[in-house]
Every structure is written in C-alpha cells, then in structure tokens.
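@channel anyone free to eyeball this complex?
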Amino acid sequence: MLLLALMTSLCSFGQSRPIHYQAGLLKASATIAPTNFYMAYSTSAMLNGYLEYIVEDKISIRGDIFQYIPGVGRFVFNHLNMPQNYTAIYAGFGYQLGKKNWKHTLHIQPGITYTQIGATIAYPTPRYSVNPSINLKAGTCLYVSPYFHFFAEINWNNSSIRNNPESSSISTAQVGISAGLGFNIQTRRKLNRN
Amino acid sequence: MVEILIPLICRFNCCMKTVSLLFLVFLTTGVLAQKPEKSATGGMLSLGLRSSLSLFNEETNEMSGKGVGGQFRLRFAEDLNSEWFFDYLTSDILNYAFRTDYHIGWSVMYYPLAYQAYYKSKEHKLTLRPYIIAGHCFDYTSIQSKTNKDIFADRWSSAIQAGIGNHFELGPRFDLSLSGQYMVHLGKHLHSDYNFSTQTLVLSEEKGQDLAGHLLLTLSLNYKIARLWGK
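replying in thread with the prediction:
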C-alpha cells in the first residue's frame, strides 16, 4: 500500500517535474538476483549487471551479465543438477512503454553461457561448456533524478549444458528477479522539460 | 617487470580504443535515429542479433537444438533485402553425444507486398512486412561423445536454405523478425551409430546421398544504423 501510495504521488507530481527519461540516456546497475533453476528444482542467486542505452524514445540497446554466486541456495537434487560455475552474457534490444519518468520495459537478448559442471568419481576432470542462450525480461523503471532510477525486473534465461557425461544435457532454464537502484546519465542535450 | 607491463598497457589501450569506437557508433546511431527518413528503401544497413531453434534434424536420435548469432542486412531496393549471418547451434543426440554447428552465410529477402498502399503511410505504426527468403551458407559441424571427448568427428560443408518470414516493424528503424527456413546440407554427412547394449559410439562420415537438413526457426532483432546510398 505504501509503495502504491508512493508511486501514485510520484505520478501525480510528475506533471510538474522534469522528465529524466529521453533518447540518449545511458544507464547501468548491478544487483543480486534471486534465481530459481526450475528444471533442477533449485534456488540460487546471481550477480546481475546491465548497461543500457536509449537510442530512440521507445527503443534501447542493452547488455546483461549474470554471474552465479556459489554456495548460496537450496538444492533439492544432488549437485550434478546445478552448474558449479555459470556466467551468462546477453546483448539485445528493449522496447519501452509507459509515460514520462515511469517506463515499463520488454527485452529480448540472445547470448551465451559459460558453465562448469561438477566433477564426479567417474569423471574427475571439471568440464567447461559454452552454449547458446536467450534472455527475456519484463520490468518497470522509475527515473527519479537525472542520475538515479529504481528498477524491478523479472528475467527468464534458457540454456543447456551439452557435455554432461552422466546423462543428457543439464537445463539451466531459470527465472530470476532483479531490483534496486540504478545510475543514469544523459548523453545528449535535453530536449523537453515540463 | 617493465617488459611485462608495457605490452599489457598497450593491449589495454588497444581494447579501450575498440570499446570507445563501438560506444561512439552506438551514440551516433542514436543521433541518426532522430532524423525522420524513409527507412525501407535501398541502401539501408542494419545490425542485428538472432536466436535460433533447430528442428527435425537429419541425425538419428538428434533432438532440437538452440542457437545464437548475429547478422547485418543490406537493403538493395524497396522490395529486395539481403541478410549476412553467423549462427552457433548446439543440440543433443539422445544422451550419448552432442552436436555443434556453425553457419556463416547470406540470404536474399524478397518482399512481395512492398509496393502496397499499406506501406506508404507517413506516420509510423506497427507494420508487418512478410518476405520470402533464400540463400546459401558454409557450415562446420562436429559431433562429440558426452563421456569421451576423444570420440569426435567433424566436417566442413555447404548448405542452401529457403523459407518465409515476417518483420514486425516496431519503430522506423527497429524491427523484430521471425523466419522459418529449411536448410539442406550439401556434401559429406556425419553419422553416429550407438550400440545401446555395449554403450559404444561409432562416428562416421559419408558422402551425401540424400538431401539431409533441418528446419531453422529464427527470431532476430535488427536496428538500422546507416544509409549507404540513396535518400
């Protein structure tokens, strides 16, 4: 309720506030994303960072990186269902909806994952694998100053580790949530002010 | 120590120059985006990223594959475009092997409805632009055992592909494209023979007798970055 009241008041005051969102905005952030590997019934956490540039009013170019934080999480099955190390890099485009300083975003980002799977008694050598991946993202973002924004996003990443010697591929399909404070700067001359 | 550091610093400077140059290209792209212009005419160059799904693969027991890649498009005319692409795909062959494919090639896209009144609107709206696509690519394929990485076979070959697609033009310069193409590999074929009772895998290479191929569904995101000729 408090959050809703805050959002409503921000929107209503938005009429007389300067608009911080416009083409030319460069934004970045890093946060910890609780992530559920739903094919492995396991929960973990990722370090998620992004860099995004608004090229047009509704279109942005974006890059994301996800780094697996080991030792955090709850594993239902044995460790073989989870990667020991996981890094995902994505690049793609975003579509921005909404008005003025409060934007809702949809992103599609192809990318690759670099993973290491756990060694076993039968296969003691660690195995590394690079695989294609895709990231779909929906989120909301509130630009509160020329330098800061708040964001909340839900991520869906999908990839498979192919060289698992024990059985078929390990799916790293996952859903995660990223939220927090981001930083932004305007790289072009400001065009409009209310 | 200095002998080690100097080349490292030089390399770092070189990397920074590349990053700065790329960043400058993106900033310039944004500036160009402000100018209203006809973006569906000859001379437009666009850059894109793509994600692929490979279905109905030729290999026995091969499952669907996932891929990632990049492309650029160079438009020749209002009804004719070209796509130059690179793909990296991986797929499982049941639980005993996996296959990796690299495609590098080109396609020509023809827009049969390009001159319809629907595309003449001055104001931009969400536009659908269907096309017929056909082309050629070079490909490198490898099959590797999951349990023993020394059981490995690879081949270089050529392929042709054709299909249909559609651009969803979300902005004057930005489009999301979905296409389905059947790719036929020409030349040698790789085969995996797995004996389930002895759990042994034999990989072999055969000269092409049949039109072996696979269906490629591709989702791509493209942004027009420059006009190389025309107005």
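from a first look: The first helix of chain A runs from residue 2 to 13.
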